[in-house]
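Lab notebook page, bench 4
Experiment: in silico fold of construct C2
Operator: M.H.
Input chain length: 417 residues
Purpose: comparison with the prior construct
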Amino acid sequence: MKGSWLTRLQTCPMRLAPLVSVITLIIGGATVANAQEQIIKLRVGLGDVSLNKVPFVAAYEAGIYKKNGLDVEQFITPSAADVARRSGVTVPKEFIRAGGRDTPIVIGGGSPLIVRWTTDAQADDRVIVACTDPVVRWRIIARPDITNIEQLKGKRLGYSGYGAVTHFVALTFSKIMGWNPEQDLSLMSGANTMDALKSGRVDAIIASELHETMALSAGYKILVDLAKYNIPNAGSGVSVSRAWLKDNQEATRRFVKSTVEMIALVKRNKQAAFGAMAKWYNVTDPEKQEQFYREVSNLPRKPYPSVDGIRATSSSPRASRSASHPSSLRRGRRSTAGTRRARLRRGGPRWQAGCRSGRRAVERRRACPRARRPRCGRPAPTPRRPPRPRPPPLPPRTRGSSGGEGHGAAWLSLGAA
C-alpha cells in the first residue's frame, strides 16, 4: 500500500502542492520567529526638535522598538538642542549626544540631504526610506507691525541654514510671490529662532510647529500659512547609510515598521504624545502641548518617501552651489566679473559704447566715426544696410473696351494716354 501511495504521488505532482505549501509556511514562520528573537542594536539620531520627531520619542517610551526586536539608542544632537534652546525649549542633557557618520539611521530632512549630495563631494551616501513630512505645513511669523504679506518685500526673513528645508521654503515662497530672493528679500541664515525675532535681527521667520507654539505664546501672530500653497516637500524622514543598508535590511525593515506603528500611536493616543513632549522637550504647559499636537493629524499614515518633494528640491536653484552660498562668495564675485566680461564680448550696450563710461563713448562715436572701435581691441559691429527703396506701385486697374478688367487693359489705357 505504501509503495502504491508513493507511486501515485510521484505520477501526480499536483497532489504534492498543498504539502509543499504547508512545509514552506512552517519553515518561513520559524525563520521569522528566529529573526524576531534576535535583538538588533541601533543608534538613531534625531536631527532637530520638531513635531515630526514626536512619534519617534513616543515610540521609544511606549516600547514599540522593543516590540519589533530593536534595542535603540536614540538621541538629539547638540546643535539641534541649541537651536531649540534659543526658541524656549530645553532638552534634558541625558538625551543629548554627538552623532556622526557612524550613525546608521538619522531622522532628518530629505532636502538638505539632497543639497549635500549635489554640492559636497564628502557628503554621506544615504538612502531615504520613509518621509513623515511630504508637504510644507509651516507658518511665517513676523513682527507685530507687519500685518500684510506684501509688507514682507524688502524685509529680512530668517531660516535655519543653507540647503535646509526652511531655505527651500523661503525660495519657493519667493517664487510664488513673484519676488527675486536675491533682490526683494534678505534671507538670513541661522535666524529662524525666537531670539532672532525678538532682538530685531530679522523681521520674520519661517516657523515650524515648535517655533510657532513659542511665538504664539509670546504674543506674535501668524502672517502666512504656507500649508494653503500645498508645496511638495522632501521634509523630515528616515534616512539610512547605503553601505549599512546592504547588510542590515532586516533592521531597516523593523525600523520602518516601527515608524508606521508609532504614527498610529500618536494619532489615537494624545496622552502618549504629551508624555513624550514633557520628558524629551520639557514642554509641560497643556496649552503649548495642545498647540504642538494639533498638526499630528497631518502626519501621513503611510510614510512613503516624497517623490514630488525630491523632484522639487532637485529642480530648485539651491541644489547647485551658487554665489549666494556663504562659502563661495569669492567665487561668486569672480563669476560676476566673468559674466560682465562675457556681456562686453557679446555686444552689450557697454561693448558697443567702447569704454567704461558708456554715455561719453556714445557721444564720441556719434561725433567721430573712428571712435567706434572699442578699447578691448574688438571691431565694432558693422551697421545694418539701409533698406532698399520699394518700387513704385502699379497703376490702378481700368476697364478695357471689352468691358473686361486686367493689367492688359490698364497698359492699353496708359498707351492711349
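Observations: The radius of gyration is 35 Å. The chain has four domains: 1-37, 39-135+234-319, 139-229, 340-370.
Next step: discuss at group meeting.
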